[in-house]
Amino acid sequence: MLPTDQPISSVYGTPFAIMDIPRSITPINKTLMQSAGIGSQGWPDPLSITMASPTAQFDASELYEMSAPIIRGKPGLTFINGIEQNVNNDGFFNPPWNFNMIEHFDLVEGPPGAIFGATQPSNGYVNYITKQPYFDKFRGNVWDTTGMYNNYMWGVDIGGPIQEGKLAYRASYMGISNRLYYQYVDNNQQNFYFSLGYKPSEGYQLDFYFDYGTADYTPIELLLNRPTQSLIDNGLYLTGFLPPSEVTAGTENNPAATTYLNSALPISRRATAKYPADIGQATFAMSQVIQRLHVSDNLDIVNNTFFWYQDQTAIRFETYEANVFKGDYEIDNRTEIRTNFDSDFKKTKLTHFIDSGFEFRFQRTLDYQSEVYLGNSWDALTENPQLFNFLLSSNFANFGLYPIPGSPAGGFFIPLNDETNQSQFFRLCPFYQHQVNIMEKINLFFGARMDSYFIHSQTPPGTPDFLFQSLNTTQLNPLVNSSIIYKVVPWISLYFNYNWQYTTNASGGGGYSPLFTATAFHLLNQLIEGGVKFNLLQDKCYFAISGFSEDTFLGNIEFASTPASFHGLEANLTFQPNRHFWIRMGYLLEQGEENWSGFPEGPEMAQTYSTNFAKIYGLPLNNNGTFPPGKYSLIGWPDQVFSGMMTYKFDSGLGLTIGALVLSDQYLGYDYRTRIPLQFVMNGSIFYSSQKWEARLNIFNFTNQKYWLPAGVGMSPTRELNYTSIVPGMPFWAQGNISYKF
Known about the structure:
The structure is a single chain. It is built from four helices and 41 strands. By secondary structure, it is mostly beta strands. The chain is globular. The model has no long low-confidence stretch (mean pLDDT about 95).
């Protein structure tokens, strides 16, 4: 479990010991994934990753469509075996993520460096490492997972050598049929994974995999609407609704809430404002080929080719929002030349390692999108859910929506909203990374990269001729990074890191809107971080503490991106004195700020005040308003987070894990009136492992706390819905898994 046990390649492309990496990073292996519950439900439940790292949280309103968590308050990026998966926006707009293909992953805080590069701004990224073939012998397992609230998963995993020592394979399948705790929310997936490893000689290695999946699911975004302080504190929900024909958004033709809101009544935490026939359908595939050529002791060549495809339809009738991605795909190829040599400087021996090369990406998107955001109109307690559909409103025609070609009935888009686009682009990226080791005490890193973009974008088929727009542009985005790590003694490392790069804004599927101006392609993403790492008690205790400052941007619709900054302090401890016992603890103190001072408007929300405030002052729900220009502290994000886990395993194979999470209070809106107070969640698991069998019983929230999560975490795009949607945390619930190994 100790981070010092394995070298990590998710920062500089080549493996380095964590004590030699001048960044904050959390390696999350299979054991830690199981202990924290990451992927145990087949989708990224919001708080499991926070148990492993206090800096990360999945957005509770986008569970099925996120591939990376919110990291340090901003959506993270997704990498797979070192290549960015970019057919998304801020890690959103994905098909349901497939954890079945994942062997382990690294959570890196701060933007990527010169080797990996980045298309979009972020405060961190995850690098998923896919399942590898078995070269030693044939092995496999079949497994089944069953949990409360109709939670069913099953799968099989087999692999072994085809030609001893030279050719091996692995094949894996996972099926999911989950109804989840909340009403009208489900997820049905089929995932197929196959990998090959080929080592014909000591100097050459090829790794290949292919993953394919389908999903029929409920796109969430809105669960329980009308969050008020009374709902959060006492479970009381404001009832009352308009006739569906009168429902609208904005202020025009939108009556005051006092005309139809009634008294507050107790409501089940399972209740939702979901339309039961929301549409979520996806087909997705990815493949990757990694070739490694060992030329000599001083020269290696690595070629990494990645392909990703998705076709997805997600229509939420209650908000109204539609996202239809018709065959988006990307192809990326990176070739690295790695050399090492020694030199002398004033009788001091210097060891050099250089990783340089070229990366090429082609991406094509055809995306239709609309968003009206009127989910606060519906009464989740007394109204018929079949009425939670904006298509029933006589005001629907007033919002400039057009039918999406080839979409299921009910699919409409807005042509000029910065998310709808038909785009394709090339990205050409030379890079250079140089590491210098001085007397095995000092490591210096210098990196540079230049991303050249050649972009064509236009409004897609189905757009009326008079609204047609197109964009052709060429852009250059540089990146430089430098860092130093100094080993005071072998078990103490001091480090400082500086990362400076320009990135781009993105539309829904990672493409570019034809309305983007030049500033959308030059968004500064800067990291300044320093800290100290300790490897104590003869490699049995790892402790790291760091301070950081990050400058970045958050994407907007209709006008330029907004500057944002983050400052914080983080500490992490892992202690494993023997093979029976380990403990992990983490703490984050962070504040973030959005700077809207130079804009004609401040931040936008689907509703700029709580439902109770609207009732008291006679204001309309779903006003789709904005706040004044100015600086605003981060919403939907706790200033302080503590997480901890502890495991003990007996020689018999029986073991126990207990995890605890504490979140400080967090505000829902930019008026800072309604807040989720300090809360805690405790999870546990009992497990057994033998040569042939593994069994695990996960017990989530075993103290049955009534906790809440905001619709949008930090600078998530869905923070706009924080006054129209809130997520009741799941109560006590249990899930069992059994696996037979052969």
